[in-house]
Amino acid sequence: MSVLQIANAARASTRRDGTDPDALWVFDVHIEEAHRGHGYGKAAMLLAEDEARRRGLDRVSLNVFGGNRIARNLYCSLGYEEAAVVMPKAVSPQRPDAT
After folding, report:
1. Three-state SS for 22?
2. 50-59: pLDDT as tens digits
3. Over the stretch 11-58, which tens digit does the pLDDT of each residue have?
4. How distant, in Å, are the alpha carbons of 17, 71, 80, 92 from that of 37?
5. CB under 8 Å to 62, separation ≥6 — which residues?
6. Which of 5, 16, 6, 29 is nearest to 61 (CA)?
7. What domain range includes position 82?
8. Is 31 in contact with 3 (CB distance < 8 Å)?
9. Minimal CA–CA distance to 51: which of 89, 86, 82, 12?
10. DSSP string for residues in 36-99
């Protein structure tokens, strides 16, 4: 049973969009629900950090949904810092006059 999925050691890439060649990007960390709360997420991130060092990279980067408090708390506890916040707002499309 697979418990951890983290980019090519987990699905890791040295370039997410070509702008940060010195970072290992983590695209997905998934811990099956039955295995959460046992330190596997932390272990996965430490594995990603070790992989970055092995590749000669100086940082690990990732995106996380704002509402995913558990993951955000984990990343903060490991020293990750917020670098961007996206704040969308839905608006209704303008309707043409019904005249």
Report:
1. coil
2. 999 999 999 9
3. 444 444 545 778 899 988 888 899 999 999 999 999 999 999 999 999
4. 32, 11, 19, 41
5. 25, 26, 27, 29, 75, 80
6. 16
7. 1-99
8. yes
9. 12
10. TTSSHHHHHHHHHHHHHHHTT-SEEEE---TT-HHHHHHHHHTT------------PPPPPP--
Closest by CA to 54, choosing from 42, 62, 46, is: 46
Both tokens assigned to 32: 């099956």
Instruction: Give the closest residue to 62 by CA, choosing from 10, 4, 1, 99.
Output: 10
Instruction: Enter the DSSP assignment of 14.
Output: S
Number of structural domains found in the chain:
1
* Beta pairing, strands 59-62 & 23-26: parallel
User: What tokens appear for 30 in the block?
Assistant: 């998934």
Which of 82, 2, 81 is CA-nearest to residue 40? 2
